[in-house]
Amino acid sequence: MRTRHVVRQYLDTPLDDVAAALLARVEEANASHGTDIRLLAGSARVFGPLWGTVRARSVRNCLVMAGPDTPDLDERLGHAGAGLMLAAQELGLNTWWVGGTFSKRAAARASGATGRVVAVVALGYGATQGTAHDSKRPEEVASYEGEPPAWFTQGVEAALLAPTAFGKQAFTLAGRDGEVMITCEEGDYAGQDRGIVKYFFEVGAGRDNFRWAS
Questions:
Q1: What residues have CB less than 8 Å from 205, skipping those under 6 apart?
Q2: pLDDT tens, residue by residue, 124-169
């Protein structure tokens, strides 16, 4: 989590050595989240004309984040995608979560993904390793009724490492008696942010140490 940063420029190096391992993780994520995430390798032409020729011109590979169109799809894909970004990092790859500025139609057509396309995750061997984003302080996003347990503090620290829409970290975490509530600022990317932040919090806190408030 600490070494994963947004990377937007990639080397023209194929995924050959790690593609099988990454595909296995995609299959696991789909099975556990009820999604239809697809890997596009070598020809990820999913960005519009401006981004395709300027900012994202070196992107050759991506995960197309899709699944059955249910009310919680964005959150489930955010959660699944967070795990896949960290898996990619473990495999020596870099990533970039893209919630907009790409063609959903092109992504669906190229990947064969079914249901609704929510986002793409650009990935590959980065031209750089990226840099840490500016972060809010834990007390700006989290509170616990009473003395916060170590797992809550660790979970908040991990959540602040999560990528969020426009880097705004527009979420709050509130804990009480082993239960945690997450709230995200309403907007087009709230569901994605909720799923991503939840995953990072779970990794930091330890999933067996708490329960999410319904």
A1: 151, 152, 154, 155, 158, 180
A2: 999 999 998 889 999 999 999 999 999 999 999 999 999 999 999 9
Exposed (0-12), middle (13-18) or buried (19+): which is 138, by Cβ within 10 Å?
middle
Tokens 């994202």, residue located: 56
Helix (H) or strand (E) holding 39: strand 38-40
156: closest CA among 167, 165, 144, 168? 144
Of residues 127, 109, 12, the one with CA closest to residue 64? 109
What gap in Å lies between CA 69 and CA 185, rounded to an integer? 22
Q: Are 177 and 149 in contact (CB under 8 A)?
A: no
160 to each of 2, 30, 90, 91, 151, how far by Cα in Å?
A: 10, 26, 19, 22, 14
* CA angle in degrees (0–180, nearest 5) for 189-190-195: 100
Count of beta carbons in the 10 Å neighbourhood of residue 133: 14
* CA nearest to 136, candidates 110, 99, 166, 168: 168
Q: How many helices (H) and strands (E) does the chain have?
A: 7, 8
Instruction: Give the Cα-Cα-Cα angle 169, 38, 87 (nearest 5 degrees).
Output: 55
Amino acid at site 38: R
Report whether pLDDT(51) > 90.
Answer: no
**Residue 191 above 90 pLDDT?**
yes
